[in-house]
């Protein structure tokens, strides 16, 4: 069985090639916002911008599309591509759902209104919910942040933000699975034994495969998360850590 350690996080341009984007098409100007520069740099040299508005998706659909196309490669860094996704979700989400996905619900008594605004801005600007589940919003590729304060100390949470470990923990490894009938699933590894592989896919569904039905299994243990030490102001970092430490565990309907 094929096991290659490679980057799952390239591939945004391949996704956008299918949309056909260009800033000049029909004289349409792109809205300003986080990720615009990365979007223009990586995606609009050859493609028409007007078609992205016709391809509006929910935040989950955008994320799913990104991860499905990630293995095809792109010029942008993982950080740049994350910003592109933030931009697409903020401006081209279906039914105006982009802002809801960009920031978590604010309702933590331990933080003031001003601090919650700061936290919401940090989470939106840095695209945290592209990968991580926060309250009942966000992605499933990265570790869930709900209840992280019960699993990690404040010092450990801060360290994970400013100096993330270069290697993913075993339970957080990323996997690309292709079955013998050509179906591809990308997600976070849940478990693996001699006979079976289980992953949480980009929609949050736990999927189980018998190894004989697999054509290939690619497991990535390189951590795609970069340091945010220089991207988050020193005075804001303790507020973010306090917010994350206060997040309670959230019960959601399991998908299987």
UniProtKB/TrEMBL annotation:
Domain spans labelled Cytochrome c: 102-248
A Pfam family this chain is assigned to: Cytochrom_C
Entry superkingdom: Bacteria
An MF annotation (GO) of this entry: metal ion binding
Leader sequence segment: 1-27
Keyword DNA-binding: no
Statement: the UniProt record of this protein carries the keyword Iron: yes
Keywords, in A-Z order: Heme, Iron, Metal-binding, Signal
Name of this protein: Putative heme-binding domain-containing protein
Organism: Granulicella pectinivorans
